[in-house]
Amino acid sequence: MTKVGKRLSAAGIALVLAGSVSQVLGAEVRPDPLLSIDQNRPAVIERIVEVFRPGFGPGQEATVRGALAGMRADHLLAASLAPSLDGLLAVMKSAESASSVVLAKPAGKALGDVGADVVYTPVTPCRIVDTRSGAGGTLNAGDTRHWLAANPSGTFVAQGGSATNCGIGVKPAAVLVNLTVANTQSGPAFLVGYPFNQARPNAASLNWVAAGTQLANAIILPLCTGGGCTSDWSLYASSGTELIVDVMGYFAKPTGGFVTESCGPGKAIRKVNADGSVVCESAGMSSLYQPPTKPWVLDLAGLGSGYCCNVGGFTDGPNAYLVPLSDGAGTYMGRVVRVNIDKFALAETATVDVTAVDTNARGFYGGFTDGRYGYLSPYNNAGTTKHGRIARIDLQNFTAGGVTILNLQSIDASLAGFHGAFTDGRYGYFVPLQNNSGPFGKLVRVDLSNFTAGGVTVLDLATVDPDLVYFTSGFTDGRYAYLTARSYTHGKIARIDLRDFTTAGVTSLNLTAIDSNLGGFGGSFTDGNFGYFTTLDTAPGVYGGKIARVNLANFTADGVAVLDLAAVDPALKGFQGGFTDGRYAWIAPAAIGSKGARIDLANFSTSGVAVIDFPSLDPAGTWPSGFTNGRHGILVPYGGTKLMRVQMFQGPGSL
Fold first, then answer.
1. C-alpha dist (Å) from residue 149 to 60, 196, 229, 638
2. Considering only CA atoms, which of 370, 365, 359 is closest in space to residue 396?
3. Which H/E stretch holds residue 322?
4. Spatial distance between the Cα atoms of 580 and 83, rounded to a whole number of angstroms
């Protein structure tokens, strides 16, 4: 291990997390400091307690932990910079009254020992390696490759990556990267990333269990420093796979400086001056910092009329793409909205209307991206008329010229009325809900490298079990696909072996047999190990609040756990979906007046639930779907126009 993360003083940990404050003296700053403090809250608290534990009296540690957990991010930053236990207790007292605080100047040095400590600077997620288009091609079993992680005066094109330097203008000590494997050739297997010119450590950076897996993991990757560094890092693969690497930030030596002030209640930092003082602004809808359970709001009504009623979406990292259903007044729409997630402002949006290519390509429900293209799942385009036109949008050419339509009804007239879609990296899967004859069960698989009728395969699940129709969502763990049936009489989950895309590869699990109130599912998602199935209603107009968690390695009744969110708050009912950042599940409310929830996946119980009060932000709004780019979660408005952004947990591993 390099010097990254070692010898961090109490001040050092806060400023490492806070971003490169010293590098922007007197300049406008991005909203990194308080965001980073909050998204790394558990690690910050743990380090503060570790530093001051020797001075605690009986029972004081628990008191301090509780106070730190409830602090605003600016107070927590002040606590991490306290020069003594008395200073920490003074910050705690100040936080109780929600008054403004002054951060103590670190004694004797600016940001710590510049020979050992480093400062973290986030960047917009940016691709630095993609073996599908460069970087030496597909990794073979036993391969070791050597690559750059920073190229200040160049690009990453030769590595299959960005045609920019990804915003990294220095040679850092380490980077925060997201490693993704796709089209794995066998398993179990693993990758190891480590500094160039060093011995390979006996520690895996990412593991997978089977062929055909698509899986990601974020790691801090120390880099080669000093002489002889012709590359920055090395990667070993124990089995064949494609690899995609996106950088999200870097660690580099600080240059000095400090923050001497913070903002009071209702204020957020806008600017840091040369003397360490700050300029504050009102913490309004698009403020620089919000706590995890208080969303930012972007009202799409500011774009004009008809920006209501999107259902689902996806992200390519920097941008969110919202899937259009209707305008809320009876007209089905084809206008896709692109929003820059970090800037989250109306001025940072763009649109493309796929009806300019095919006037009947409108009224979509859900979608996904394979990195280059976005795919929209066809649902309803006029009155009650279902359609089968999949729209593919080139995300590098976000215009009508980048739109291609594949009409599934040209293959089979019954292929219409789909309710969501997902991908395993090679194929896209479109979830059957109801066509023009009624509920149906024809799962459509499209070869994404052959976006034509010739690339389409259909599997009729109803021929296995007539109950396997009318699905509301689906996902894959790499080996299997899982579809969520919406029925008041049963709670069957269909599992399809993606290596055997035939009726012989289909099994099911009836959750209603475990709990009679597990039915009427609105949506589902996975964290890789478990599938989560959210209840919308258990009878017409009777909303439910139960979440079923299924162990995907034990697809039986014994692998099922149930959590009733309504036991925490009666308004936690009526859910159509959700997503996870790896630590928490975020549950989206589909019913007017319903609240949202954040569930600690390490504590799948009522004590692990935090409530998000969406009705206080828009009493008539609903947000039945959402997704995340790892840094932020996006909740997509259906009843209303207010797009929500929530802060994701990135955990101690982001240090």
1. 44, 11, 12, 40
2. 370
3. strand 319-324
4. 37
CATH assignment of the domain containing 128: 2.60.120
Domain count, the chain: 2
- Residue 312 corresponds to which amino acid? G
Q: Any residues with CB less than 8 A from the CB of 88 and at least 6 apart, and which?
A: 48, 52, 64, 79, 82
For the entire predicted model, the pTM comes to 0.62
DSSP 461: G
> What type of residue is 551?
N
- Any domain includes 1: no
Is 240 found in the same domain as 151?
A: yes
Tell me the pLDDT tens digit for each residue of 44-53: 787 788 778 8
Letter for the amino acid at 616? S
Q: Tokens representing 104?
A: 């103590």
> Does residue 59 form part of some domain?
yes
Q: Are 210 and 241 contained in the same domain?
A: yes
Between the CA atoms of 44, 45, 47 and 49, what dihedral angle is there, to the nearest 10 degrees?
A: 160
Using DSSP's 3-state secondary structure scheme, residue 571 falls into: coil
Residue 375 falls inside a structural domain: no
Rounded mean pLDDT of 16-27? 29
d(CA 340, CA 412): 38
- Distance, in Å, from the CA atom of 546 to the CA atom of 446, rounded to the nearest integer, reads 33
Q: Decide if 64 contacts 252 (C-beta within 8 A).
A: no
- Pick the range with the lowest mean pLDDT from 386-395, 409-418, 562-571, 574-583: 574-583
| Same structural domain, 210 and 110 | no
End-to-end alpha-carbon separation of the chain, Å?
Answer: 13
Q: Are residues 84 and 189 in the same domain?
A: no
